[in-house]
Write a structure and sequence with these properties.
The protein is of the alpha+beta class. It has 7 helices and 11 strands. The strands form 2 sheets. The chain has an 8-stranded mixed beta sheet with strand order 1-7-8-9-10-6-5-4. A hairpin with a 2-residue loop joins strand 7 (170-176) and strand 8. It is globular, with a radius of gyration of 17 Å.
């Protein structure tokens, strides 16, 4: 994102790339094998039932996931079509250092890692703060509920191999308004090309399956600078609803 000079290359793109490679699970999960019970996970509090978007929030349809979610009105929201538009990409690359690297990774992975929605707290633009982000990545093929645990295994393994995770990775079963999920949480070090201490960002995500579609919803934020009213993952998940 837009960062101070010592962290100039830290960006929205860098943050999102952290969860992008986890979505390569789509290339690792075999197409519809005989269902095997998933590994047990420590239960967590269920997300709130689907509710109308809070006042001052806007619903955003995500066709590839078959759901919509809501974010505060002040957030920049880009759907899959906008992210694929060359002019939009150039604008993002100009405004947010590191976005070019993000799109390069996406191009290299093709359909295996589809970033289908990107939400960014636009209040961080020009402030030098690491902007909170919410991303949705399509996981293909769709995971039946009985294989959700296996999909989460691949996700966690990919993250642990690829990135500087500095805490234990936590996993817990989760119920969302649109289907079962597994919550995945950790803190990871994001360092720009110029080096330095970087940012210790919190990742709070949920691998969710509706039976018809599977997707990874992730929130990344710097806990030291994120605004107090930045929505938590549970608040975002509570707004999930199936598209008609």
């Amino acid at each position: 994102m837009l960062m101070p000079a010592s962290r100039r290359r830290l960006s929205i793109g860098t943050c999102v790339i952290v969860v992008l490679l986890a979505a390569i699970v789509g290339g690792c999960v075999p197409p519809r094998p005989t269902p095997t019970p998933p590994p047990e996970a420590t239960p967590s509090a269920a997300a709130s039932p689907s509710v109308a978007a809070p006042a001052g929030w806007t619903d955003h349809p995500i066709e590839a996931a078959g759901v919509s979610l809501a974010l505060p009105d002040g957030w920049l929201a880009l759907d899959e079509a906008a992210l694929a538009d060359p002019d939009e990409r150039r604008r993002l690359e100009a405004e947010f250092a590191g976005a070019e690297a993000l799109f390069g990774r996406l191009d290299a992975q093709g359909r295996q890692a589809r970033l289908v929605f990107l939400g960014v707290d636009a209040r961080a633009r020009g402030t030098g703060r690491f902007a909170p982000t919410v991303t949705v990545i399509a996981v293909e093929p769709a995971l039946p509920p009985l294989l959700l645990g296996i999909g989460a295994d691949f996700t966690v393994n990919a993250l642990e191999r690829a990135f500087a995770i500095e805490t234990d990775v936590t996993r817990a079963d989760l119920e969302t308004p649109v289907g079962k999920g597994i919550r995945i949480g950790f803190a990871h070090r994001v360092v720009g090309v110029a080096g330095g201490p970087g940012v210790l960002a919190d990742h709070d995500g949920a691998l969710v399956t509706t039976g018809e579609a599977s997707f990874l919803v992730s929130r990344n934020a710097d806990p030291e600078t994120a605004p107090a009213d930045s929505p938590a993952l549970d608040e975002v998940l509570a707004t999930l609803r199936p598209l008609p």
